[in-house]
Amino acid sequence: MIGGPIIWMWLPLMVLGMPIFLAIGTACTVYLMAHGEILLSIPQRLTASANSFPLLAAPFFMLTGMAMNTAGITRRIFEFAECLVGRFRGGLAHVCIVASMIFAGMCGSAVAEAAGLGTIEIQAMTDRGYPKPFAAGITAAAATIGPIIPPSVPLLIYGVIAEVSVGRLFLGGVIPGILMGGSLMVMVVWMAKRRGFGLQPAPTFRVTMTKTRRALLSLMTPVILFGGMFGGMFTPTEAAFAAAVYGLFLGLVVYREIPWRELPKIFLDTVETNGVVLVLVMTASLFGWVMARAQVNQQLGDLLLGTSKNPLVLLMIINVFLLIVGCFMETLAAMIILVPVLLPVVKAVGIDPVHFGLVMVLNLIIGTLTPPIGIVLFVVARVAKLRFEEVTKATAPFLVPLIAVLILITIFPELVLWLPRVVLG
Predict the structure, then answer these.
(1) Could you tell me if residue 280 is left (phi over 0), alpha (psi between -120 and 50 degrees) or otherwise beta?
(2) Per DSSP, which regions of 158-256 are E strands?
(3) How many angstroms separate the CA atoms of 66 and 178, rounded?
(4) Is there a contact between 383 and 114 (Cβ–Cβ < 8 Å)?
(5) In angstroms, rounded to a whole number, what is the distance separating the alpha carbons of residues 328 and 221?
(6) By the 8 A CB rule, do 362 and 154 touch?
(7) How far is C-alpha 83 from the geometric centre of its chain's CA atoms?
(8) Could you tell me the pLDDT band of residue 8, with boundaries at 50, 70 and 90?
(9) Angle at 418 between CA 414 and CA 422, to 5 degrees
């Protein structure tokens, strides 16, 4: 019996509606009690996992995203992106993608992108005559770029759980994120020709300069993040703090679109969201430790390695498994359960943990676009005021380019590993 009560307890507890951290914590506690372990080890493991300097970046990245959405920065980014690519056929769909790529360099959350940019994008597209389901579909698909292009909250959490360099993970996400944006734009070109979407006039030079000037300070956020991190001025955690302070400064002092009375609410929302993430990471550490003691990792490793010891074949099998898991589980929850189990297996066949991290996160992020869970689909459906089924159907064609990118980075690890190697050695 693999893992005893660990496997057989937390699943039914989750089905009964118990929060995932509590279900896993209960299963781990019962397992340790059944094997005569000292329960004092539980709080020791929990507190040790929370005492992580890289993990401190998570609330600051969340705060940055909330500040950007509240300060009108999303609108400025959208207008700037419109000047860049709005003139092409299906222009506003391209604008959605480019705006998401820019916003991804500030926030790192698919839900924040879908909620913040989605409101502006869907309204602008429907005002220009685009079908609302199509606008919702491209908005949802483009939002998945957020957790891949750095900074990325899921990559940060993976780095903490897997004890992998967050800087390498962030750099590893740059090329896959660009490929995601490019592949979505290729799909938009094909769909625009097929549906007969027209062209819109190019903005004048004066309008372009005006909108660029309005967005310039906002566009400096990724420069601060990446320039600081990879220029050796500060760590990813310190970069997150700098980005949060800069975002609040823009909203409060420069643009003055964040009322001072809103600050307590922004801070409280950040604390509440981060509290959920923190307790999940703490539970993940305990879960991984107990799974190792129960030798689940070794047993699963023997099972998978008995199927194939070829790294590519093994990754393809894991891809299919993760795509299915992503349909039924939220990204962070799936990572908490699966990283401690799968990481030793991929290491055993020589797969780089940074490469595997990007493959895993992209798999699970694609899951945010698939029913029945599909958190991004739910957010976009609410923003667009459409039925969940309509948004799901409209988003389905855009899964093709995203899965194509997943296959590419699976087959060619250098798409992930080349940039970290060049920049960090």
Answers:
(1) alpha
(2) none
(3) 24
(4) yes
(5) 34
(6) no
(7) 27
(8) low
(9) 165
Q: Using one digit for the tens of pLDDT, what is the confidence trace for 366-408?
A: 998 998 778 889 889 988 989 989 999 999 999 999 999 999 9
pTM of the model: 0.84
Residue 41 has pLDDT above 60, yes or no: yes
Whole-angstrom Cα distance, residue 146 to residue 127? 25
Q: What is the pLDDT of residues 339-366, one digit of tens each?
A: 888 898 899 889 999 999 999 999 999 9
Q: What is the Cα–Cα distance from 370 to 364, expressed in whole angstroms? A: 10
C-alpha 257, offset from chain centre: 27
**In the block, which residue shows the tokens 């969940």?**
388
| Helix, strand or coil, per DSSP, at residue 68 | helix
- For 11-65, what is the HEC assignment? HHHHHCCCCHHHHHHHHHHHHHHHCCCCCCHHHHHHHHHHCCCHHHHHHHHHHHH
Cα 221–Cα 227–Cα 228 angle in degrees, nearest 5? 90
The backbone region for 374, taken as left when phi is positive above 0, alpha when psi lies in -120 to 50, beta otherwise, is: left
Q: Are 172 and 419 in contact (CB under 8 A)?
A: yes
Residue with tokens 């937390």: 10
Can you say how many angstroms the Cα of residue 142 is from the centroid of all Cα atoms in its chain? 12
Q: Transcribe 352-393 into DSSP letters.
A: -HHHHHHHHHHHHHHGGGSTTT-HHHHHHHHHHT--HHHHHH
Contacts with 422 (C-beta within 8 Å, 6 or more apart), sequence order = none
Residue 144 contacts residue 97 (beta carbons within 8 Å): no
CA 118 to chain centre: 16
Residue with tokens 């566009």: 219
- Spatial distance between the Cα atoms of 387 and 371, rounded to a whole number of angstroms: 13
What are the φ/ψ torsions at residue 219 (nearest 5 degrees)?
Answer: -70, -10
Q: Look up residue 122 and give its two tokens.
A: 């869907």
